[in-house]
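1st attempt posting a full record on here, be nice pls
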Amino acid sequence: MASDLVLYSVAVIVRQVAVAGGWFSSRPEVSTPLNSWSRLTEGVHLHQAGLSPYSGVVFHETPLALAVFSVLGKSTAYASWLFILGDLLTCFLLSRVGEVVAKQRLVDQEMANSSGLHHPEARPLLATLSSTLTIPRLLSLSYLLNPYIIASCAGMTSTVWTNLMLATFLLSLVTSHQVLACISLSLATYQSLYPALLIVPLCLKLVQSSPTVSPTSTVMTTLAMFLTFLTSLLLLSAEICGDWSFLHSVYGFILTVPELTPNMGIFWYFFTEMFDHFRVFFVWTFQLNLLLYVAPLSIKFPTHPLLLSTTMIGLIAVFKSYPSTGDVGLFLSLLPLFSHLLPFMKQTFIILCMLLATTVLAPIAWQLWIYNNSANANYYFAINLVYSTAQIFLITDLLFGQVKRQFYMTHGFSLLEKEDKEGQRPILQLK
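the predicted structure (as tokens):
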């Protein structure tokens, strides 16, 4: 308890110092057209002046965020505490996720052992009782002291609230709480659209947790509940705005990518160089690219909805149109949930070096390009590519670690040590 209090206190102090310093509020790696605090305050000014913030090209937040901050005010000193509170609440929810997952893993492990599903050689790979304490603490540390998360909170980006909704969703997922999961997922989807993909692992989890209920009935009920909550949010937004103009300014903006402000994603550079008559085709290609991963991953890992959800959160952080460090920070903070896969991951050191290098070099390249005029967009985009590649490596390494561990749990280690007539050993491949 005392250690948790110290951790939370340090997290608050670090965030307040960063807010006071104003180091991240205008950083392109942190603040995007979709989550910028300065754009939100400008929209609030227009709304309070009786003007529609959606009539221009600056404001792209949701009407609910507009209404909430119109009431709460635009004071940075006051609002910063709200964002810090949101981060602390997200951390608490993630630690609860860690507790539930660790306990469920021990129960499932015991059931598999009693059923003879685990190979005797796999005994060293089994989780221990101490994991119920270590995993929640690692999750708290990896979130509160994550530099990407600290930067996102200090920049007062709306990604803080998206992460809060996703943390609530993950807790609902692992506890099979259908209503809360649909509410939190609809809020996350309402905020940034892409989390709608997480409805697939939610349906898989609910089907597995209710074996006596028809899978079709469970899926249809979940979809109906999710769409009902999402439609209610859209109707409330239309009531706030007085019309439906926000749809184009918020979701149309996400899907069509009209503003090419540099960020840590891959969209802005491609569409800067793109000929206009190819633009529609490639916008569809880039947006559908993310959707294409859902089916094969769901087929390969149908019994691991938490892993599937984490993978989808990581892919969204890479392939969304306006990504920020807060998106990647949440994905990295979830990795302690899969600490048992670390011995089977081969590229951890390379990935760590790539992320560290790009985190350091991105501000330098931006300074050289924008302020010193001694570099160009190619330098900054090269860092973006390495940054995105590191995340892809991490996702594939995580999935391969799961496949490899599952193989060892079922077949043991000795199977891969046997040589054939030509003196070659079997190779485990991710397919």
